[in-house]
Amino acid sequence: MVQKITVVGAGIMGSGIAYTSALNGFSVVLQDIAEAGLTKAKKEIEKIASHSEEKGFITTEQKESALKRIKYESELEIAVQEAELVIEAIVENMDVKIELFQKLDRLCHPNTILATNTSSLSPTEIGAQTSRPDKVVAMHFFNPVHKMKLVEIIRGLDTSDDTVAVIKAVTEQLQKESVEVNEFPGFVTSRMNVLIGNEAMNMLMEGVASAEDIDKAIKLGLNHPMGPFEMGDLVGLDTRLRTLEYLYKTLGEKYRPSPLLVKYVKAGRLGKKSGKGVYDYREE
User: Fold this and answer.
1) Could you read off the pLDDT of 262-282 as tens digits, one per residue?
2) Any idea which fold 190-274 has?
3) Does residue 216 have a known ligand-binding role?
4) 3-hydroxyacyl-CoA dehydrogenase NAD binding domain: from which residue to which, for each copy (predicted)?
5) pTM, whole model, 2 decimals?
């Protein structure tokens, strides 16, 4: 049974995965090459834990125990020395992911499972660049990780049944539900979600309604917990664009990115992480 997890990438998703893993009893190392990123992640994790404590979702003892279980490390080789499972949560770019997985393959114990938190890319293609394709799998978490109940588990062509069984057990210990998905670009949720977000962008571009009213209509009319613009700003419009570009390339015309989305990303309006996306967060 997995007890030691290393999370690579200290952004929003990596921080959330690390915190949720520690909260549910795993020993965690959060790795990022940028010390500033690790410092920011530590503050964000402490903020989330304190907020959960204040709301009564966790006890003080649970908070303190979770925070003690997380170590922060900039050196990849040190971070993965004892890892039984490595979860990658870096940029949604196949070349960058493959380069990382090749390093992980060299540095990790032969029995270590390597998981990617990709929302759309192929675990088969990633696994094929390692000497352990049977131990490569996709674990697609959702933001915010400590609140969202689902993990999509996507097996590559050579992912073993044993690997999937371990990942399902880890997911269960994380207090989450899992669905097993046959590999196909975009899996289940991303294919649906980016279509909604992209169409919302087109409607905003066309002047159908304001961003606020489009979000309100989707939340109240379709019972979504967040509107498509709120979700896009949270995930990152650059991440959303990369996913659309990949699905446009692999699945065709209906995934063509909205010109307005492209324009926002070119302007550096990436969402909450940049201070401004569809909405302005700079005063927050």
Assistant:
1) 999 999 999 999 999 999 999
2) N-(1-d-carboxylethyl)-l-norvaline Dehydrogenase; domain 2 (1.10.1040)
3) no
4) 4-183
5) 0.85
